[in-house]
Design goal:
The protein is 41% helix and 12% strand. By secondary structure, it is of the alpha/beta class. It has a single domain (60-348), classed as Spore Coat Polysaccharide Biosynthesis Protein SpsA, Chain A (Alpha-Beta Complex), CATH 3.90.550. Helix 8 (169-185) packs antiparallel against helix 9 (226-237). The longest helix has 35 residues, at 2-36. It is globular and about 50 Å long.
Length: 355
């Protein structure tokens, strides 16, 4: 009897043992998968690579800079604070631009972002902004000034500046980074309170908020343009951090006035300085900053803005924290509905912050 049962019992041990070992292996694979796809693990890999002066096998940021930014067909936005929960106006600005320029890369540089090493990291960032995630031409990258300023006139200045002693450091960072981005990669820079409503017909341009001054809130230049380099040099040589706008609109105005003087507009047509077009105030500033509240008012007859490419909403003036209210019938609500409908829908569903 024992001899008859000996072989089946032996086989039973083998089968049972194989299932047990298979379950152990399966659990180990599952655990490894969870660990290797966790943010903590990816962070440790990136940190280890930095400590050993090596790079991960795939670096998303480097890939984007090599394969996307180097094309020179970029539109840049910059967030120079560590804020990640962006207000609706910022989301609307980026969305309207991505819709208006589906053939261009819209790149949002954010100081608050950590390293984006893998495609999963990038996916996580995109999921944080559901109203923008469907646009394939929108990219999110961390703003790293030490790397951005390398091999530019900004680097020596940046190494010796003490941000704690600066009154307007957030604005200074933004003013400097936008010039460096355009110098290195070329394209268009826009402030995050500009709603795009028509395509800009020129690649090399500066915007005029008045008939005599220039703005740094919107401009377009090719990479390594001589004016961008001169902006950086003048920024450093004449740095006055205690004066608001000295490194911004005043910088652009004083540099370009040396070459062509103030704009000489006789109509809304462009004024040309060398190979750069000056845009009439109506192109981006049809409602000038003293009247910025009109965007948040109800209009009996909505303006057409037929001469405008974009609308600058002067958010730095918005100390009263006015924002778009769904159902208010204000001008800004109509702009959201028409030019950034995903952001508008997100507000209706309470998926985004308001400001």
């Amino acid at each position: 009897m024992w001899r008859k049962l000996k072989i089946p019992i032996f086989l039973l041990f083998i089968v049972t043992g194989s299932f047990f070992i298979r379950d152990i292996i399966k659990q180990k694979i599952t655990q490894d998968s969870l660990i290797h796809n966790s943010p903590a693990y990816r962070s440790s890999i990136a940190e280890n690579a930095a400590n050993h002066n090596t790079k991960p096998t795939f670096d998303y940021e480097d890939m984007i800079k090599r394969n996307v930014l180097q094309q020179g067909n970029n539109i840049f936005f910059v967030e120079s604070t560590d804020r990640l929960n962006e207000p609706a106006l910022v989301l609307c600005s980026i969305e309207s631009t991505a819709r208006m320029y589906p053939d261009r890369q819209v790149v949002f540089f954010m100081e608050g972002l950590g390293d984006i090493v893998t495609e999963d990291d990038e996916k996580t960032v995109r999921e944080h902004y559901p109203t923008l995630s469907a646009f394939k031409n929108i990219y999110f990258l961390p703003l790293k000034l030490d790397k951005l300023f390398a091999e530019t006139p900004f680097m020596p200045w940046y190494k010796k500046i003490d941000p704690k002693k600066e009154i307007y450091w957030t604005y200074v960072k933004s003013d400097s980074s936008r010039i460096a981005l355009i110098w290195k990669y070329g394209g268009i820079y826009m402030d995050t309170d500009v709603i795009s409503i028509r395509r800009i017909p020129e690649d090399h341009f500066l915007a005029s908020p008045t008939l005599t001054r220039l703005s740094n809130g919107l401009f377009g230049l090719s990479s390594h343009n001589k004016f961008a380099w001169e902006f950086m040099e003048n920024f450093v040589q004449n740095y006055k951090g205690e004066i608001y706008g000295h490194q911004g609109p005043m910088l652009f105005t004083r540099v370009m006035h040396k070459h062509c003087g103030p704009p000489k507009f006789t109509s809304v047509d462009h004024f040309k300085c060398g190979n750069i077009f000056y845009f009439h105030p109506d192109r981006f500033y049809p409602i000038f900053y003293p009247s910025w509240k009109k965007y948040y008012e109800v209009w009996e007859h909505l303006p057409t803005f037929n001469n405008s490419y974009g609308l600058h909403l002067f958010n730095f003036m918005n100390k009263q924290k006015k924002f778009m209210i769904a159902g208010s019938n204000t001008l800004v609500e109509h702009l959201y509905q028409q030019y950034c409908p995903s952001t508008y829908e997100g507000i209706l569903k309470n998926k985004t912050t308001l400001y």
